[in-house]
Amino acid sequence: MKPQFILKPVRLSVQLLIVGLLPLSSCQVPKAMLAPSQQPIPTTFGTNIDSGTATGTSAQSDQLSFVADSTGIAGRHWRTFFDDKELAALIDTALTANLDLRIATQRIEQARATFDYTRGFLTPQVNAVASAGLDRYGQNTLNGVGNFDTNLSPNIDGSRRIPNPTPDFFVGARSTWEVDIWGKLRNQRKAAYLRLLASEEGRHAIVTGLVAEVARYYYTLLALDGELEIIQKNVDYQRNALDLVRVQKQAGRVTELAVQQFAAQLLNTRSRQGQVRQQIIEAENELNRLLGRYPQPIARGRSLQSRELPGQVATGLPARMVFRRPDIRQAERTLQATQVDVDVARAEFLPSLNVTGYLGLNTFRLGTLVNPASVAAGLLSGLSAPVFNRRFVRANYNGSVAQSREAFYRYRQTIVDGVSEVTSQLRGVENYRQVADLQIEEVQTLSNAVGTANDLFRSGYATYLEVITAQRSVLEAELALINTKRAQFLSLTSLYRSLGGGWE
């Protein structure tokens, strides 16, 4: 027996519905959203020395003595920029074990899953179905009368007679498909893809911030190590001075007051050692937290006392920085996604075309389910447009527009913050360099003053108070110098992050 197909005809009225629904829907579709005006980006990072305000033109601004070339920050990976094997090892550990970075990675996986999910809407959804049902039709119903009349036909006999109640068995496939006539589904996929890119840029931003944060705590530790060295050196100087004044007291040249003053100064300096050691413990614990591990000693190189700041830093232009900073690129991708969301919301005002179909075995007797005569197929299309629920569609559209504008202002704010950060850090690196040069001369001068005061004190031409003052002054100057060098390295580290790290 040849299989018999029962095919439900496609509704020929679809064309008429399209003609009828389009005027009803399209006449009230909102106009395309106009993007707010963008604030122009400066062409340089120039900063006026006297006023400290950005001028935006190289002719009217004092340009920093930094060279923009391919060997600068923008083109250098952190491994070559932070040329320290101990720091590189710490950064490697952080990039492997940091929990914030792992969370960002899972956000990327979520965005990728959302993108894969939206891709499925562009193709028909096909589901395997096995169903069973039972209907009892009343004698005064359309199906009841029709089935009774059918059973009286001489062409119907045996298993083809319709029982009442009537079972309904189906095994096959059913399909639903929204035809993307307005590009709504394609735009949903595009928005999901842009958010996937934004999540990846967000991870890049976290990596850049993590590298800079590890470097910041590392240089802080090196500065604290330098403070300990300075304090220990001054403790030795002050201990020798205390021994000297005790000898002077035995010789009757000074009183017990002088001994007490020198002893108190020594105790004050030694107390600073305990404070610095506590700061070292706190900095190590913060660094270990970034490394995703419990507190333990941090291996590190020599202190900042013997380190010099790199002499050249490349900056490039703000226009290039826009494409370099991960947070700006993330904000840009998010802005693009919200703009596409507006297009999706606008398409909700237009009619949607849905097609459903099925193909399988359908019978009212289980014993005839695998019979070729039970093969059945159907196809149905429908066009629908919002009429009475348009206020909900409009509310969704208005919300999408507001989100898009918010994303635009966040994007612009990110650019403004980025340009401001780079300008501040560039000026900070140069200013701290000048301060450090002057402080080096100050330390040398005060160190000579300590030797002079000691010689004069031995010969009786200077008082012990002058010696104490000289010793205290050189200690404060050396500590100020190491703090300035720390500010130099931290400013350079912040500049590296402000320029987007090594991302291209």
Automatic annotation (TrEMBL):
Stretches that traverse the bilayer: none
GO CC terms of this entry: plasma membrane
Molecular function (Gene Ontology), one example: efflux transmembrane transporter activity
Alphabetic keyword roster: Lipoprotein, Membrane, Palmitate, Signal, Transmembrane, Transmembrane beta strand
Record's subcellular location: Cell membrane
Pfam families named among the record's database cross-references: OEP
Membrane topology: Lipid-anchor
Top-level division of the source organism's lineage: Bacteria
Signal peptide: 1-31
Family per similarity comment: Belongs to the outer membrane factor (OMF) (TC 1.B.17) family.
NCBIfam families xref list: outer_NodT
Name this protein carries in UniProt: Efflux transporter outer membrane subunit
Organism: Fibrella rubiginis
